[in-house]
Amino acid sequence: MTGSYFLDFTCWRDVALRIVAGKWKPLLVYFLLSGPKRYSELRRTARGVSDKMLIQHLKELDKDGEVLRTDPKAIPSRIDDALTPLGRSLT
């Protein structure tokens, strides 16, 4: 499976460990519990995390299915991040 991203989680513990593996991921999941947030809101709330790491962790959470990143095609451009049912089940 070169070049593709495949997750084979057999139980909820595997998913939870994947999230905990990131330094800022548990904090991001916690911040998203109250509802969808824009990137700027997360950046303000998660003080101490660099822009690069924040974007990287959000993309990983999106790829793993815990966070849904939506672009409502609004002007000005904005992306909302929200927990999926899988992401909510981890809390």
UniProtKB/TrEMBL annotation:
SUPFAM superfamilies: Winged helix' DNA-binding domain. Residues 11-91 form the HTH hxlR-type domain. Gene3D superfamilies: Winged helix-like DNA-binding domain superfamily/Winged helix DNA-binding domain. GO terms for molecular function: DNA binding. It comes from Sphingomonas panacis. This is HTH hxlR-type domain-containing protein. Coiled coil: none annotated. Keywords: DNA-binding, Transcription, Transcription regulation. InterPro entries: HTH_HxlR (IPR002577), WH-like_DNA-bd_sf (IPR036388), WH_DNA-bd_sf (IPR036390). Transmembrane segments: none annotated. Pfam families: HxlR.
